[in-house]
Design goal:
Largest sheet of chain B: 6 strands, mixed
Number of helices of chain A: 0
Distance between the termini of chain B: 37 Å
Order of helices and strands of chain A: EEEEEEEEEEE
Strand content of chain A: over 45%
Order of helices and strands of chain B: EEEEEEEEEEE
Oligomer: heterodimer
Number of helices of chain B: 0
């Protein structure tokens, strides 16, 4: 059974029209991550939440925002999508954060975003 | 962003052959992970390694955490067509549990 669920699997939006992608988890993990993955590339971390604490990566554009209303749900908002934002967006969770890094991340199946 | 050196970039093999791929880094990691990604799907965790020198198996897959903590390899024995996909290594560590991904290895298996 899927434990990290992303909806929708495919999303089409217009250039400049705000879009929201959603992620939910049944694992009760403290940490939720959003990644952007372009064709033939590795996933690129955008930001993560540790509980309610938001942590943005330094090179994430301001166009990308996130919300985490509760433990189970996390949203990715793209305020004004450009053509370069077409990609697969992956959500991941991990149980906790530890200095030893021994909390593997578990990914959802992603949302493929297309921009018209 | 930072990436690990992963090789080979792609492999085209016959069903039944063994496969080996590896990752190297200039940085030390506390954890090495191997993921497989099928087209249109998210990465699926195959093996997690937590100790330097650790050798771990998952069915036909075997992975090792290098003794220097800067490298890891993944072996697949007796490959089958469903092994096709992109394999990513990832190093993990630091306060944010951040994953640093390898560049990926595309595996194609000829039946």
């Amino acid at each position: 059974d899927a434990m990290v669920i992303q909806n929708p699997r495919y999303q089409v939006t217009q250039f400049g029209k705000p879009v929201t992608l959603s992620c939910s988890q049944t694992l009760n993990h403290n940490v939720m991550y959003w990644y952007q993955q372009k064709s033939s590339q590795a996933p690129k971390l955008l930001f993560h939440y540790y509980d309610k604490d938001f942590n943005n990566e330094a090179d994430t554009p301001d166009n990308f925002q996130s919300r985490r209303p509760n433990t189970s749900f996390c949203f990715l908002d793209i305020r004004s999508p450009g053509l370069g934002d077409a990609a697969m967006y992956l959500c991941a969770t991990s149980r906790d954060l530890t200095p030893r890094g021994n909390q593997p991340q578990h990914f959802g199946d992603g949302t493929r975003l297309s921009i018209l | 962003g930072q990436q690990l050196n992963q090789s080979p970039q792609s492999m085209f093999i016959q069903e039944g052959e063994d496969v080996s791929m590896n990752c190297t880094s200039s940085s030390i990691f506390n954890t090495w992970l191997w993921y497989k990604q099928d087209p249109g799907e998210g990465p699926v965790l195959l093996i997690a390694l937590y100790k330097a020198g650790e050798l771990t198996s998952n069915g036909r897959l075997t992975a090792q955490f290098g003794i220097t903590r800067k490298d890891s390899f993944l072996n697949i024995s007796a490959s089958i067509p469903s092994d096709v996909g992109i394999y990513f290594c990832a190093g993990q560590g630091g306060a944010t549990n951040k994953l640093i991904f390898g560049t990926g290895t595309l595996l194609a298996v000829q039946p």
